[in-house]
Amino acid sequence: MRDDADSRNSPDLAERFADWQDLGLDPHRCPVRDVLSHVGDKWTTLIVAALAGGPRRFGAIHRVIPDISKRMLIQTLRDLERDGLATRRVFPTSPPSVEYSLTPLGRSLLGPLTALVAWAERNHAAIDAARTRFRAET
Amino acid sequence: MRDDADSRNSPDLAERFADWQDLGLDPHRCPVRDVLSHVGDKWTTLIVAALAGGPRRFGAIHRVIPDISKRMLIQTLRDLERDGLATRRVFPTSPPSVEYSLTPLGRSLLGPLTALVAWAERNHAAIDAARTRFRAET
DNA sequence: CCGTATCCGGATGGATACTG
DNA sequence: CAGTATCCATCCGGATACGG
């Protein structure tokens, strides 16, 4: 499963990293760390994916991701809203209904995110194989 | 409100998500979740970036990422090794020296990862602004 | 229907001290 | 130099119950 086509971009990361070094690499002020932790947390990516198709109501998202608690769903949506990746619209119906949708900024994340997801799907077999091999050697 | 420039890639994610649904979306067996959590954890991305330029010794990595404990450095390197993203070579010198480097699989991750990092760098200003705005409104 | 509040177990990760 | 072992604080996130 060689994929050297992708490694043409790789020098970039080494260079950027060197730049971060020069800036002090304070993890608490590093925007990259900030954003990536967002991506890596338990629910953000799934929710962004759920909103990728268009606006959804709270309950709809919850139905689409059954194993998230309301607590975590709200919290993650709030974080997305806070960071300007999603918006929240309240319709004063009764009972109230709330609709979430991605902002342009949020949608601009879909490209890089999809690339990463595609990589995961392409290579999870190789990763599984590596794990099995690793366990066998120890 | 449409932002068609960036959203050309976006239908993919919505479709994939729908597929995951059909497969049951068991988080513990979802390869995507598995990989993304890897990317999102505190140190993996930094270490991969540090190895992007070529093989490095344990101490060299540690010097390049000063604020990681040896414990976490080892643990993260082990995980990378386990997943087939990095290799570990021991040179039986005295004192011993150990060299880590990315595998082809690991290097193939650099492309998607760099795209995500580039997004983070492009948009962290917008995110910061959104946060300030959000705090102001509450 | 949408959200909040509280409690609590387990994972994460830092500090420190010790080996070969 | 490279790694291990132990202890301990913090945080993430689930369960539950309640409110508008």
From TrEMBL, chains A, B:
InterPro entries: HTH_HxlR, WH-like_DNA-bd_sf, WH_DNA-bd_sf. Keywords: DNA-binding, Transcription, Transcription regulation. SUPFAM superfamilies: Winged helix' DNA-binding domain. Residues 30-128 form the HTH hxlR-type domain. GO terms for molecular function: DNA binding. Pfam families: HxlR (PF01638). It comes from the Bacteria. Signal peptide: none annotated. This is DNA-binding HxlR family transcriptional regulator. It comes from Methylobacterium goesingense.
